[in-house]
Amino acid sequence: MIFPKELVAASATPIILAILRAEDSYGYAIIQKVQEVSGNQIAWTEGMLYPVLHRLESAGLVESYWHTSENGRRRKYYKITKAGHDEHELLIKQWAIVQHAFQLLSEDHNADEAGRISDNSLNRAGRKQHV
Fold first, then answer.
1. CB–CB of 31/49 below 8 Å?
2. Nearest-angstrom CA–CA distance, 79 and 77
């Protein structure tokens, strides 16, 4: 599935902060985690991720540090800050409101559609529709 760039941009910060809330991580591992938890439906690239991480770091929501793994590979890790935790809590509340509104509006739409389908079925069966 292809996600519009606006949706990717809007969801990047809360997703990254949620990942870093669980544990410090590096870019490639963050990309892999997003693919894993989305069932391979969301595929981020390094070109998308690193500017967001740099923006989050500039805003004081994450910090970075270098770590050398056991195999000698040096990676830049990111960790969430106290401000990042606070921002993540706020984003959870904001996204819950948006999701709730979207769900209610979608249910209303689905109910309207079901009503129209039912009314059309009655009309085709020769019954008079009351408006």
1. yes
2. 7
pLDDT one-digit tens code per residue, 69-105: 889 999 999 999 999 999 999 999 999 999 999 999 9
Is the domain spanning 5-124 CATH 1.10.357.10? The answer is no
The 10s digit of each residue's pLDDT in 52-62 is: 999 999 999 99
Q: Write the burial class of residue 22 (CB in 10 Å: 0-12 exposed, 13-18 middle, 19+ buried).
A: exposed
Structure tokens at 12: 């990047």
User: Max Cα separation, the chain?
Assistant: 78
Q: Tell whether the model's pLDDT for residue 114 goes beyond 70.
A: no
Nearest to 51 by CA among 22, 16, 84, 79: 16
Give the residue among 86, 20, 22 at the shortest CA–CA distance from 53: 20
Taking the whole predicted model, whether its pTM rises above 0.85 is answered as no
The residue extents of the domains of the chain are 5-124
User: Which residue is associated with the tokens 């809360």?
Assistant: 14
**CA angle at residue 23 from 27 to 91, to 5 degrees?**
85
